[in-house]
Amino acid sequence: MGSLESALPLKRESLLRSSSAGRSERYPFLLRPRSRFSRFLLSKKLDYLQWICTVAVFLFFVVLFQMFLPGSVIEKSQDSRKQLDMVYGDLLYLKDMGTLDFGEDIKLEPSKLMEKFQKEAREVNLSSSFNRTQHRFGYRKPQLALVFADLLVDPQQLLMVTVATALQEIGYTTQVFSLEDGPAHDIWKSIGVPVTIFQSNHRMEIAVDWLIYDGILVNSLETKVVFSCFMQEPFKSIPLIWTIHERTLAVRSRQYTVNGQIELVNDWKRVFNRATVVVFPNLVLPIMYSAFDAGNYYVIPGSPAQAWEADDVVALYKDNVRLKMGYGPDDVVITIVGSQFLYRGLWLEHALILQALLPLFSDIPFGDNSNFHLKIIVLSGNSSSNYSVAVEAIAVNLHYPRGAVKHIAIDGDAGSMLNAADIVVYGSFHEEQSFPEILIKAMCIGKPIIAPDLHMIRKYVDDRVNGFLFPKENIRVLTQIVLQVISNGKLSPLARNIASVGKGTAKNLMVAETVEGYASLLEKVIRLPSEVALPKAFVQIPAKLKEEWCWHRFGAFLNLTYEDRTLRSSGFLVKVEEQWNHTQRESSGSITSNDESFSYEIWKEEKDNQIFNARKRREEEELKDRSDQPHGTWEEVYRGAKRADRTRNDLHERDEGELERTGQPLCIYEPYFGEGTWSFLHLSSLYRGIGLSTKGRRPRTDDVDGPSRLPLLNNPYYRDTLGEYGAFFAIANRIDRIHKNAWVGFQSWRATARKASLSRTAEKALLDAIQTRRHGDTLYFWVRMDMDPRNPLQQDFWSFCDAINAGNCKSAFSEAFRSMYGVGQDLDYLPPMPDDGDTWSVMLSWALPTRSFLEFVMFSRMFVDALDAQMYEEHHQSGHCYLSLSKDKHCYSRALELLINVWAYHSARQMVYVNPETGLMQEQHKMKSRRGKMWVKWFSYATLKSMDEDLAEEADSDHPKKRWLWPSTGEVVWQGVFEKERNLRNRRKEKRKQQSKDKLHRMRRKRHQKVIGKYVKPPPEEIENSNSTMLKSLFL
């Protein structure tokens, strides 16, 4: 198993952790330790003539071969890469591995991932070091979700069915989700796994509460559309294992970079980064996907793909390939294959293998013609290289008959080439971490294989049982084996029997490694809550489930033709690219249109602002001119004026839902956090959302912004720790500014996801009971504790609370109550919650009178403050609290979920269960049965109000400097606050009066200039007389 650690260029230094890593740094060139293959050449006593021939080959062609080495060919074939086929272009990635020496091992280690697992294991051990004992109750099994792009019958479905069957055996429960239906639907149902098909629409909304599942296994690249859910809150932290078998994205990613589609590459990087672990079935794929590596790559070897395709290959080609290659039915074809990694010196390994096969031609008569019965195919490289010339040069130098040795590139269909062979020889001496896939394919086709006794090959191949092995130190044995395999120009009976046995072996090769690999990985990745039972260890998986793939469940579909997964994946990537290009064109078009209409938009915006301001001034003038003023005291007028000032800037038009909600007796708030919850929220006027974060609020809705109502929610620590309780505090904080209804309700989005929310019928029944005051001051709830999936055994209240809080719920409640009420530490202060056959409320879905809700919030604020005081230091620093077995940011939110029951029971409130489907109501824990069991004195309004005022006085008067949560959870109100406000108003009033007196005084004392004289206007008669006199004088 292995992984890459960073997305680096595909070079040996960055991708391989080989046995020779760092040799050049630690030793000078002359003192550098020799590789295994070099030591084998120098230390072993090889045949003298063989060694001489090998050295001659090396010395004679060293200059000639240098120009044909894979490392050199890579530089020469840059222009021809674009011409390669899309599917088989993946070999270009492996050509950059051109610096391996002889005998070096290829090893990929997930060092970062393993460090992460070890760190989490240490943290789990630290959590067990609390002073309190933590317990696991195991009331339910761990649940896994398997997500597929479709349910077509293919090797990936076979693999996951086999893995899921083993996981169920050790204690997991699974559920399958798919974007499209298919024949595999019935297969999953046959093993007892429920299947859900997502409803396809243009928006592709996936409404699933993924928090139900302890882990998610996603398969194939085509499930990318589902990742939009997992990349949003509240599903970001769910462990996710993504299995990738396709190579198409790795091939296309280089073209994305060349074409400048960087955003498309970054989008895929974000998807790879979201996965907790990305699993590959072989070592080649993580190297190909190195551009997307986020340090989370992991290799679980094994896949039934080669065995699945083998029968199709045999039936499809038969003898057609041999005829096309010019081989007759009597010819014996030996195919030399090797590692998928290309490296310098590959030609030398091929030269050694060809040297060992050369004696075979001495037993076969041939003349001057080129029609020989023995043919050798070297299957390696790709069509863009000139390695064929090197192979021909080696054959000529070894005096092979002309045309006997032929090089064929494997960037085409390797299956057809193997089907044309009679014998397959593995010619690589590199140790790899997994069994070579090309040998699996050859064995599945039914070809006898001959391979060196490398550790990974020797693990699955028994010499002369299901294959032939030769020591890599003595290549002469290869010649002897081939002579035994070929008898009278045909395969010997021994070879046919061994090939038949090898076919059965390859059909179920590495099943145990695959099954145990997934089970072991789940143990490392998943952290189970205290109410979940631990599964059995992967070593306890029954042996029969690790012996073979579940072929018997796919027997009816093996003969059916199915669409190739590579083609489907390529088609999906084409759609993604087209969508991305369309988005880019739209964005570029919008930029152009924005540039052209920039000045017009500025002018239009300025004109709209002027019209709005003019309208606002006109309305204000009209309001000032109105003569009929409201009657009331000066205090009411003052409050109304202040309220008008506060709402003056909030001029948004009220929508229909808000207007309808105003006349209703009840408003149900739905707290949510993140876009992943939007599909579970209601849009009717009875409901109103409240976002716990400003970022994830729904657009074009009148949802309440929780952080603006309660600044404490801007703190991510308390937003996560309080959970939906933060919405209670946000609504209660100055509730008259936002809530105008007589009753208030809350409903968790998770209740809607589990189909436990109120139906239309239940809503009408609840509203009718409220309007008619059928039950008075009552707590109505509609999600029962005895029906909760976390409580399959229907435990009593405190037992259930302990089960979901690591066995420490009762002690946490007891300490919190002692802290609240100042009771001695030596007393067991826990309110009784009797098991009388009735049920309790869970999932924070209930309704209360608004006044009772405020009383409950008053009690809850003190309780939360007491919990926070005892848990904050440890939880904030390390992320661990004694209410959880593992690191958990939602420390005491599960304990708060049940607090409403304690308060309602002991404050003598009626508790009525409303059936969410039918609306039928049933009273729980009737008052008669509560007598003598309620702590009314401690939960009465007078007691709680007195405690609240004491805390408010302390916060307002003393201004404590220590960290204190209570003042941040709501209003700080006591009698002194009203007196302070009254005194402040009086001081401001006296100040204004004094300022007026001072102004009048200054005006009176101001020195004025004395009047020099006054003009007295003459009477009208004198004016007329004077005018007539003037006229007479003029005429005279």
UniProtKB/TrEMBL annotation:
The protein's matches in InterPro entries, at most eight in alphabetical order, are given as:
Glyco_trans_1 (IPR001296)
The record lists the organism as: Hevea brasiliensis
Q: Which UniProt keywords apply?
A: Glycosyltransferase, Membrane, Transferase, Transmembrane, Transmembrane helix
Bias (Basic residues) ranges = 999-1009
Query: Where in this chain does the record put each Glycosyl transferase family domain?
Result: 412-491
Which segments cross the bilayer?
48-69
Record-given protein name? Glycosyl transferase family 1 domain-containing protein
Its organism's taxonomic lineage begins at: Eukaryota, Viridiplantae, Streptophyta, Embryophyta, Tracheophyta
Region (Disordered), start-end ranges:
984-1009
